[in-house]
Structures are given as C-alpha cells and as structure tokens.
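Researcher: Next sequence.
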Amino acid sequence: MNPFNREEHSHRLDRELLYMTLENQFLIFQKLEFMADELKNLQDAAAKTLTVEEAVLALLTSQKATIDSLSKQLVDAIAAGNPAALQAVADSLNTESDKVNAAIAALQPATPAAAPETPAQ
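Model: Next structure:
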C-alpha cells in the first residue's frame, strides 16, 4: 500500500467528506427546526394580539351603542323630571362601567407570581 497513491485512499477521503456533509446537513436541519419553532411562536403571538384588538374593538363598538342609548334615556328622564328614571340610568351606567372594567381586566396579561422571600440567616 503506497501512502502517496491517491486511488488507494480515495474511498477514505470520500467517506470523511460524506460524514462532514452529513454533519453539516444535520446542523442546518437543527437550525431550520429552531427557526420553524420561533416562527410558530411569532405567529401565535400575532394571532393573540389580533384577537385582543378585535375584542377591544367589539367592546368599544358595543359601548358606543350603549352610551348613545343611555344618553337618550338621561335626556328623557331629565325632561320628564322623573327621579326613578334618573336612578335607572345611573344604575345602567354603573353596570356598563363594571362590564368595561371586567373586560379590560380579562384582556390584561397574567402577572407572574412573586417568588416568596427566604429569610436571611
């Protein structure tokens, strides 16, 4: 076996080249998997953001109609001098305010719980 004869060693070089190529392909595959996971996370975050925006828009749209209705009821109650009707409008305003506050609270991201403090020794 002649150490300088390329033909005798070409199969070894081909095998090493094949292993190097396979290792590089595996690394590329791992990076692609990581990028795919990151893309999925971004898509999920974008979808969640759109869902929150749609919910806020729906809430504001329904509140506009409610405010318009309560405004008309208030004008009618004042014109009629009816204290019971004024109280009903006030109660409706409080109910709607509670609904808005609950909806806003539901859309807030959860805050992580604070870690319990360990006493110093």
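Model: The first helix runs from residue 6 to 80. The radius of gyration is 34 Å.
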